Description:
By secondary structure, this protein is an alpha/beta fold. It has helices spanning 32-35, 61-74, 87-97, 115-134, 137-144, 147-154, 166-178, 182-187, 220-226, 247-257; strands spanning 6-10, 13-18, 39-44, 81-85, 103-107, 204-209, 231-235. The protein is 39% helix and 15% strand. Helix 4 packs across helix 7 (166-178) and helix 5 runs antiparallel to helix 7.
Amino acid sequence: MDDVVYDRAGRGEPLVLIHGIGHRRQAWAPVFPLLTAHRDVIAVDLPGFGESPAPSGGYGIEPALVMFKELFTDLGLDRPHVAGNSLGGLLSLALGQAGLVRSVTALSPAGLWNRRQKMYAIATLKAHRALAQRTPPHVVRRIAASASGRRALTGMIVGRPERLTPDVVVDDAHALAFAPGFEPTAAQSRGDFRFTGPVTDVPVTIAWAEHDRILARPRVADLRKVAPRGVFRLLPGCGHVPMSDDPELVARVLLDGSR
């Protein structure tokens, strides 16, 4: 199996956390300590992102399912709970449909879009990556030193940029700029790259950020097609990556979804 890098701590039933495209496992840092008293928490860097090397089996949903199945076996996890954001939410839903997990919590998951929404989301993320690649780290750090600067840099991604530290903004920008998995993952969108479900055999929670500026919130009727018995929640005040916007709320959603 590819050498997937992960952080693991806590006690209780296992809960695997999956980040979005261009991000890294540290996206879960604000909620991680709120979960470890209740769950055995494993936050992973997807292959080609963060510190995990590029995968040997390629990118896409099917290679990711193979990777996670092998990872679960290597870590001694018998159908863990799983939670994901954006791309991680899409992969979490796919893991639920494949019967590899015992519950799914998806935060603003990718893949529940129409063609226009998909093109907008991918174009917006590519523009952020291009900006991160063109801006030297010392300039990012100077801009990120102020709350207004953090809002300018990250306001499309999070709802409360002032809660991010300058170090997090700089490190996230570096991760986005240099992730080898970004382009091949984004290239998957040239096909259908939609998740239509249904996920029927495991509990599913889909929570959408109120101020998501990347992905449009689907209608409940459309979510019902993906998860007929799912629980659907709104994350007030949160942006597309909600973990730093309201860690306590996100932790409650994850704990409720993984009961």
